[in-house]
Amino acid sequence: NLKKRESSLKRQLNKKKEKDRKLKKAIKAVIEKELLAKRNINFKLSADFKKNKGKLPWPVEKGIIIGKYGKQQHPVYNIFTNNNGIDIKTTKGSKMRSIFNGKVSNIIFSPSFQNAVLINHGEYFTVYSNLAEVFVKKGQEVKTKDYIGVVFTDEEKGKTEAHLEIWLGSNNTTSTMNPEHWLFKQSF
Fold first, then answer.
1. What is the pLDDT of residue 42?
2. Are β-strands 102-110 and 141-142 bridged in parallel, bridged antiparallel, or unpaired?
């Protein structure tokens, strides 16, 4: 029975890896395109974003991190996954909001990660995915805490999870950063 469960978990993890790979590829393409057009980089906004490390608001008003950034091992099986951001468990109907001033670079849709909104903050980019509904448009300016969409609820699993990523794009290279280090520390 344990072997059967392990096979099922491996299939689920492989689906998650594929979903993450598709999202990462789409995000990277958007960021690289903007990096090539150097005129789009607002270095003052970039510096302001960097100054606010550890002080940025949460992308949802209520939530708890259930998926950590980076390489994670399954608690039972010898299976690893890589998370380019953090996953935040929240409540049904929760709205996702921008964590800093910026401009919507792109909106991407895939059945595997629903809608994803990329916001440009100079050399920094934030990615908000697993959105059922999007309130913003490509090219739109947003302010800190502006609502950008509604978090998707998987009715079958009874889960509402927001996903946040932070990317740095400079000198024609891209890298992900741990969003937990950038968000204001919550105390419960």
1. 82
2. antiparallel
Token digits of residue 16: 């998650």
Q: Are 67 and 178 in contact (CB under 8 A)?
A: no
Query: 136 and 142 in contact (C-beta within 8 Å)?
Result: yes
What is the model's pLDDT at position 103?
95
Q: Where are the beta strands (DSSP E) in 23-172?
A: 64-67, 70-73, 80-83, 86-89, 95-97, 102-110, 114-121, 124-134, 141-142, 147-151, 153-154, 159-170
pLDDT reported for residue 96? 98
Between the CA of residue 70 and those of 32, 80, 85, 110, 161, what are the distances in Å?
22, 10, 7, 22, 17
Q: Are 166 and 177 in contact (CB under 8 A)?
A: yes
Predicted local distance difference test score (pLDDT) of residue 188:
45
HSE at residue 128, side-chain half, CA atoms within 13 A, is 30
The pTM score is 0.87
Of the candidates 174, 143, 112, 154, which has an alpha carbon nearest to the alpha carbon of residue 45?
A: 143
Residue given tokens 């606010």 in the structure block: 52
Low-confidence ranges of the chain (pLDDT < 70): 2, 36-40, 76-77, 187-188
E-strand stretches of 17-94 = 64-67, 70-73, 80-83, 86-89
